[in-house]
């Protein structure tokens, strides 16, 4: 019997389940969006997943509208963006909505991932949920990078030059991969055309992966702040938690509006407002803010091949987290040492992001190397063995 129905003294299945057989093809949506059984003690940190889906939808819509005016040619790409902003009605709002929407998308997804790490949401038996989430993050990074290249500003061109050249570290076929990405022997019109095709296609791949991610989540149900089994204390998602998601959406739209209408260029780089010039190298090449922590890891290691391996190891560590963890209680509220070290890890990621935005100097390189070491120690040593240590520590008392 439904817990709410039982509490009020009702008999039989709740109304949202009784009408399920009448919905026909819509019963799948009813089962996964309305009647989906959800732990009744969820807090607002569980909003980030649904908000990420909403932002993804907004990015797809604004991207399709932008594609109607964009010209994927090195001689016309920058001019087409300027034409969009000044000649197309509401074109400036559209362009800034898409650009700042990417920042909001990464903000929401990063918070979603940090919540998952904090509460152990990817631990057994939900490993597939975590794995699909990491794959989504990787596709997001690729999509956002090639999208950053499309305006064909100074930072777009040189960012593409730096990032695509990293493929040369691949043994034997590295140069061939770079030439394939470029569509020739230098970054030119074929490169931009390929990136435009990928950038238009990948958001739909993200949408498909998101559906698979949700299906994997609903197989075993959501976790909860206490990290304990609450299968006997669930309530329908759509009836009771839609209001929480609606409140989170209101705050998200407020942040969206502030960025688009008041601070549209705050998160961008001024060099990207200059047309691409292959003969003038910017003084300081930096990616978008949401890539800075990865860029700091790459930049902190003097050897290019070792830097690429370090980045690959970072994402491999993220993929391996559910298999490395031995924790049985998901909430660090019951494991104070875990909570302390988790916040040190979060501070380390923020510090890496700051380091990635600074000029290359001995002090910033040294700080980046230290932060990279702390990151790997947490992911590969602390996270796997801390729960084992704490369980033995508490049991020995």
TrEMBL record:
It is a multi-pass membrane protein. Heme b b566 binds at residues 112, 213. One of its GO terms (cellular component) is mitochondrial inner membrane. Its cofactor is heme b; heme. InterPro entries: Cyt_b/b6_C, Cyt_b/b6_C_sf, Cyt_b/b6_N, Cytb/b6-like_sf, Cytochrome_b, Cytochrome_b_C_euk/bac, Cytochrome_b_N_euk/bac, Di-haem_cyt_TM. Belongs to the cytochrome b family. The keyword Cytoplasm does not apply. PANTHER family: CYTOCHROME B. A ubiquinone binds at residue 218. One of its GO terms (biological process) is mitochondrial electron transport, ubiquinol to cytochrome c. This is Cytochrome b. Component of the ubiquinol-cytochrome c reductase complex (complex III or cytochrome b-c1 complex) that is part of the mitochondrial respiratory chain. The b-c1 complex mediates electron transfer from ubiquinol to cytochrome c. Contributes to the generation of a proton gradient across the mitochondrial membrane that is then used for ATP synthesis. It is found in: Mitochondrion inner membrane. It holds the Pfam family Cytochrome_B.
